[in-house]
Amino acid sequence: MHLKEDGTWDIRVAGQVVDTVAMQREQRVAIEIELSRKSFERLNHRVLPSLLEHYDYVWYFCDEPARQAVYKARGEYLKAEADQRRIRIMKLEDYLEREA
To answer: What is each CA distance from 35 to 43, 56, 68, in whole angstroms?
Structure first.
């Protein structure tokens, strides 16, 4: 996805905003939907480096077991805080439309 305008997202810890990530018009965002947990080895050597090489940001929408794996891989395999900040990890269920 290419951004059409500037934007931000908040980094929250225990519901509190601890930082804000600024995004700029024309930056590229990869959208990943993780329904199953990937191995840490795969995330380390293939997925995360490739995504960060080609995109400015990565947004992961994950079910809970996959979400935990992506969090752990981001923290263990991306040593630079700047790279960690480029990956946003969200609960998939929070973004699914519910039928009444």
So the answer is: 14, 23, 12
Report the predicted TM-score, pTM, of the whole model to 2 decimal places: 0.82
- Calpha distance 69→32 (Å, rounded): 14
Task: Kindly list the domain boundaries of the chain, sorted by start residue.
Answer: 27-95
The order of strands in the sheet holding 29-34 is: 29-34, 57-62, 87-91
Cα(58)–Cα(42) distance, rounded to whole angstroms?
16
> Which tens digit of pLDDT belongs to each residue from 26-67?
999 999 988 877 665 666 667 788 899 999 999 999 988 888
Number of residues in the chain: 100
Distance CA 96, CA 66 (A): 16
